Amino acid sequence: MIITLKDGSTKEYSEPKSIIEIAADISEGLARMACAGEVNGEVEDLRTGIDKDCNLSILTFNDEGGKAAFRHTTSHIMAQAIKRLYPETKLAIGPSIADGFYYDVDRDTPLTSEDLEKIEAEMKKIVKEDLKLERFELPRAEAIAFMKEKEEPYKVELIEDLPEDAVISFYRQGEFTDLCAGPHLMSTKPVKAFKLTSLAGAYWRGSEKNKMLQRIYGTAFTKKAELEEYLHMIEEAKKPYIFVGGGCVISGASKEISELAHKIQAPVCDTLMGKGTFPGEDPLYTGMVGMHGTKTSDLGVTECDLLIVLGARFSDRVTGNTKTFAHNAKILQIDVDAAEINKNIKVDASVIGDVKEELKRLLEEVPEKEHPEWITHSLQVRIL
């Protein structure tokens, strides 16, 4: 059989090979980094055997499919840690999601943030144990009996709802086994940078008619530095943001406005880069880059509380996205010569004074004791 790789090169074999075996044949380094495979466009487990010609890509954490497999394995490590610490806990589902993973669990006593620290510590032990993940299948009746024996009612329900001819697969790591279609890493060892981030409620199978379960969210990376960068970004995204810049670089203003921003725990980005500041374009959305080089929409900011407009009527300067973004915003109009808007100029001191006064008024409207709650509102101050 001929295997065509992502770069167009080929490998030829006279007998079936698993994806991980092909990865190792390409290079040991690639095999160590491999998280999953993509066979003819479909993401597959590393253990999947190949016995005919195909196109194959070895997926690492840098690929979306690889990242999903990596984080899915982390969710299993978390579930194993929970069962070790709290064996009476019933497991529901634990998929990977866009920025991490979660697992829904059922407990008489809800988990707390202190419990998350204990679970993380146990997860580290599981990673250090370098447990191999083994995939196996069971016939329907045996699969149901297997999960009933383990007293996992949610798993039993999931199996019973599968089609009669469905492949029912499981993954075993050490003493822990979970119902799962995969794909997964080969062992727990690579998962060294992870964090359990929050707890929430979730109805079983998304229906309010069912029992409310507890959902544990987390994320995972291959490197500690990447995890720390992500967690920092998430914390920054929770804060109110004051954006200063865009059409004009506000020279000499940052220190004064930063002092006000500090009172409401808001970082300041003193220049927004991107073309989205010209008439007829969308100055709050198109090409807008702020903290960490990330678009505001990517930071989870969805609404603007205060919009400061330089030298143009609001309705003349924005398009649909910004109108949605700022539909409840207070608008402060500041007259500036239109010819100067898109230049790197020092804005007149009176303009800075108007901005400062508006910020002060905003601060006065909210009692100081309530300021910490602003992290859920994402205050936006934007000079266009």
Which structural class do you get from the secondary structure elements?
A: alpha/beta
Characterize the biggest β-sheet: 5 strands, mixed
Q: Which residues form runs of ≥5 with pLDDT under 50?
A: 240-254, 260-349, 368-384
Helix content: 25-40%
Cα-based radius of gyration, to the nearest Å: 26 Å
| Spatial separation of the terminal alpha carbons | 60 Å
Mean pLDDT: 74
Q: Determine the number of helices (DSSP H or I, runs of at least 4 residues).
A: 11
Strand content: 15-25%
Apparent shape: globular
Widest sheet, order of strands: 2-1-7-4-5
Give the number of DSSP strands.
20
Task: Report on this structure.
By secondary structure, this protein is α/β, with parallel strands linked by helices. Helices cover 32% and strands 23% of the residues. It has helices spanning 19-26, 28-33, 64-85, 113-129, 140-149, 153-160, 224-238, 254-263, 314-317, 320-325, 349-365, and strands at residues 2-5, 10-12, 17-18, 36-39, 42-44, 49-50, 54-59, 90-91, 96-97, 100-106, 133-137, 169-173, 176-179, 193-203, 212-221, 241-243, 268-269, 306-310, 330-334, 380-383. The strands form five sheets. A five-stranded mixed β-sheet has the order 2-1-7-4-5, sandwiched between helices. Strand 1 and strand 2 form a beta hairpin. Helix 8 (254-263) packs parallel to helix 11 (349-365). The protein is globular and about 65 Å long. The termini are far apart. The relative contact order is 0.09. The model is unreliable at 240-254, 260-349 and 368-384 (pLDDT under 50).
